[in-house]
Amino acid sequence: MTPYYRRMRPRRTLPVALALAVALPWTALSAADAATPPTTTTTGTLLEVAIDDHDAPTSTWVLEGDDGSLTEVKVPTSLRGAVGAPATVTLDTSTATPTVTAARPSTTLTPQVSRPTALHAYVVDIVDPTSSDTTTLAKATATTKSMESYWVREGKGGITSFDTTKAISFTQANACDMNVYELWAKAAAKFPGVAWGWANHLVVYLPSDCAYGWTGLATIGGGYMMIVAPDLPTTAHELGHNLGLAHSNLEIKGKTYEYFGAFGPMGFSVNDYAPGTLDAAYQEQLALPKAAAARRTLTWGSTTTVTIAAVGAGAVNSVKVTDPKTGTSWFFEYRAGRGPDAKTFYATQYPFLYGPAGGLVDYRRGVQVSNLTSGGLITHTTIAADETWAATRKGEWFVDRGKRLAMKVVSTTATAATVQIVTGGTGAATPPRWTREGMALPVVVVTPLATKVGQKARVNIRVIDASVGSSESYAVPRITIDGGTPINVKLDANGRATWTASGPWAKGSYPVQVYYPGRAGQSLKANGYATVVVTP
Ligand SMILES: [Zn+2]
């Protein structure tokens, strides 16, 4: 039942820029200036290109000249602030890929969706007589149409309509071997006068047998898309990049895994499952009016119980709270696997993926907790025993790694989840109690009592085992002192015991381990640790 990433293909590097000087006025290098790198200054817009290679996602950069040329360039980190706005750009042209040495934006960027907008697609199907391409113009047009419908729905009032203004075929031999930026420029030239960006998107379909490692390219906040895999998940994802969105990632034990935030369109696409609804944090990034109306913002330092509807206008669809100390805005939404999410991967019976850390990630329905970073959206996981849950389920707590925020899923229905959110501290949060198979996760709390030299040491033990019913018994834990022989301890009906040493102890520190073996077939094992300090 393990899903596979259908769009993984053998890797091949991106075709590198072969002919750079397509349209830039290169400065001649005089003999006297031989020590100075040759530079040129021009005007245009720097764009980040997201390369969707599921093995190794990466970015490159292009300069979109005012004349419509596209040139691959290197952009040092210090100049990335100029990306996305019209600018005066200086390039060091001494290397095969020119390096930007200065970029002065001529305007400042404003949020892209400041008012509802109509979007337009310009479809180009590359017909390559040398290939065994199966992507027809009809297929390209139909795929684009499904992508447009997806984004009108997910645009939530920010995208008023999305049409295909023109769809053409374009014959190009050996298209797979061409520089993709040159191909973009050639395709764009078929639509003179169109300004590519928020409103106008150039959607180029390459031959389906181009054997790249990547399945699609797009420009972050730009208007260019290049598609190898002609399907809704790929096109919806690339359009998301054009709208300025980065990837959806998953946090597991403090590490972030790119693409594994697989609820919305900006994570992995698995098989042919539909992309899920746009994540709440991205809805806010795009300032979507209907999403804003359905978002409830909490005040930090409070305990609030709120019901979040999975879908539906007029209800609360997401909750946001901002940590004033870290500046992080947290978002909570209910992934119920119904309505627009019914045909997604996570709504299937076995929504498990092998994570890059080697463990299984369980995407079953629950409350998604996420935040935005400069590197994209991060969905935070709940760890239950050795299981990683991408969403938090009924009866369970999510606690952030900084222990500044906790959220309990109080109850769920088919369409809504009631959650309690505690901010400014984690309140009564306890670890998750159930695994995916319904096995209880016990917790062992070991508390040494004060002991002086010559006294018998005492240790309080408490076992929390959710599988124990009112007339049932706990399993028998074993206490080990300083690596010695394990000793059985009998717990009372409440899972508590006080263990007393058989004789007086000398001054020193004694490590104590309490092992709880779990009830047969009902709960998992657990360990608790403490140190007994014997003082004079
Ligand atoms: Zn991407």
Automatic annotation (TrEMBL):
Extent of the signal sequence: 1-31
Keywords per UniProt: Signal
Domain of life: Bacteria
Entries under SUPFAM superfamilies matching the protein: Metalloproteases ('zincins'), catalytic domain
Protein name: Peptidase M11 gametolysin domain-containing protein
Biological source species: Cellulomonas composti
